[in-house]
Amino acid sequence: MFSLFRKKSELDRLTEQYAQLLEESFKLSTTDRRASDLKRAEAEALVARIEELKAQEQ
Q1: Secondary structure string (H, E, C) spanning the chain
Q2: What tens digit of pLDDT does each residue of 36-53 get?
Q3: Domain segments of the chain: what residues?
Q4: Quick one: residue 7, left, alpha or beta (phi over 0 = left, psi -120 to 50 = alpha)?
């Protein structure tokens, strides 16, 4: 219950944003391949930052 009021960490926000971008990319893949590729590239750009944050946690 108290996690309801907890602020999200940067890692949590980036992970959510990554998943959202992948989902948008998938939806666009059937109609606009170029836009889909751009969304996928945005998502892949977040991977480096996510990996960096995970390494700092350990």
Answers
A1: CHHHCCCCCHHHHHHHHHHHHHHHHHHHCCCCHHHHHHHHHHHHHHHHHHHHHHHHHC
A2: 999 999 999 999 999 999
A3: 8-57
A4: beta
Phi, psi for 39 (deg, rounded to 5): -65, -40
Under 8 Å between Cβ of 39 and 19 = no
Q: What is the C-alpha to C-alpha distance for residues 58 and 55, in angstroms, rounded to an integer?
A: 6
Nearest to 41 by CA among 28, 52, 54, 53: 28
Output the six-digit token pair for 45. Answer: 């750009």
Whether residue 46 contacts residue 18, with contact meaning beta carbons closer than 8 Å, is answered with yes
